[in-house]
Write a structure and sequence with these properties.
- This protein is α/β, with parallel strands linked by helices.
- It is built from nine helices and eight strands.
- Strands 1-2-4-3-5-6-7-8 form an eight-stranded mixed β-sheet, sandwiched between helices.
- The chain is globular and about 50 Å long.
Length: about 300
């Protein structure tokens, strides 16, 4: 039997190769990225229920594991390089997060670039967080506790959402979990070079091309809402950063952890040996993914 991690890495390399072939076909790339976690049938099994939120604003959906507390709510912001991804591709993973954390998850289908450039997606995430604070899956009203969570581009947006709601003097979440977040649009992370030959999915040479696609021409790469590495984390809630050590984005996490700690923020930096970008979505097929989700659940329950 093949080692699960070998199968995951082969799967990601195949997606990366195909994505490069489709570089000028954004619709095809978006369909491809929906298959990111589909390495084995078990990764698509949903534990609990999901259903769309009926509002007149942003498309969203609840993911609710059996027994999850509807008064404890996680806003989840999906990845996809700011140009792809959707809640649909994350349902199985989020059902496991809901189960591990004992909380319900609201996945926001924020507007994507290039059709909608920065800060459209961030504005959607901020609005979704505000909506979640006041609304539950069962109509119970305001939350007792809220959390922010996201992966990759969604980790970027989760951190930016935290910065934005803090600047607006709005109530902060109890904690934030960022999985392999992109935190620096200036390209200052050493791992962009040191991990380039071992990262199976992200080609760092493509990253600069995302700047005009997502940010447009009028936003500085050092704007904290674009690059959360440059934000102020004084007085912020605890952060959990999970990242694999073969990722080109590794130092986007290590540098953010150092920066936030220097400002007095409680940061847990969780680096996983040999694990690729957003490996958590390969649970239960990949044992490390299941262990990482359990750690996320413990972190959220503790806060």
């Amino acid at each position: 039997m093949d080692n699960p991690i070998d199968k995951v890495l082969d799967h990601l390399r195949a997606i990366a190769d195909r994505a490069f072939e489709l570089i000028d076909d954004i619709d095809a790339r978006r369909k491809l990225i929906e298959q990111y976690f589909c390495v084995h049938p078990s990764t698509s099994e949903i534990h609990g229920q999901w259903y769309p939120v009926k509002t007149n604003t942003i498309p969203m959906e609840w993911v609710v594991a059996d027994g999850a507390d509807t008064d404890r709510r996680i806003l989840y912001i999906h990845g996809g390089s700011w140009i792809s991804g959707s809640p649909a591709g994350y349902r199985a993973f989020l059902s496991r997060v809901s189960q591990a954390a004992g909380a319900v998850v609201l996945a926001v289908d924020y507007r994507l670039a290039p059709e909608h450039k920065f800060p459209a997606g961030l504005n959607d995430c901020t609005q979704a967080y505000q909506w979640m604070r006041q609304n539950s899956p069962d109509g119970r009203g305001p939350a007792l506790s809220t959390y922010l969570m996201g992966d990759s581009a969604g980790g970027n947006l989760a951190l930016a959402t935290l910065l934005k709601i803090n600047d607006a003097k709005l109530p902060l979440p109890a904690s934030l979990v960022a999985i392999s977040p992109a935190t620096d649009f200036t390209g200052g992370s050493p791992s962009l070079v040191s991990r380039a030959s071992v990262d199976p999915i992200i080609n760092p040479q493509i990253l600069p091309a995302l700047i005009p696609v997502y940010l447009g021409q009028n936003t500085s790469p050092t704007d904290p809402y674009a690059s959360p590495l440059f934000g102020n984390y004084s007085g912020m809630p605890p952060l959990l950063l999970q990242v694999g050590d073969v990722e080109v984005l590794l130092d986007d996490s290590t540098r953010l952890a150092k920066h936030a700690r220097e400002q007095g923020c409680d940061v847990t930096l969780d680096i996983w040996d040999g694990m690729p970008h957003v490996f958590q979505g390969f649970a239960p097929f990949l044992p490390d993914a299941s262990e990482a989700i359990a750690k996320i659940g413990q972190f959220i329950r503790h806060h």
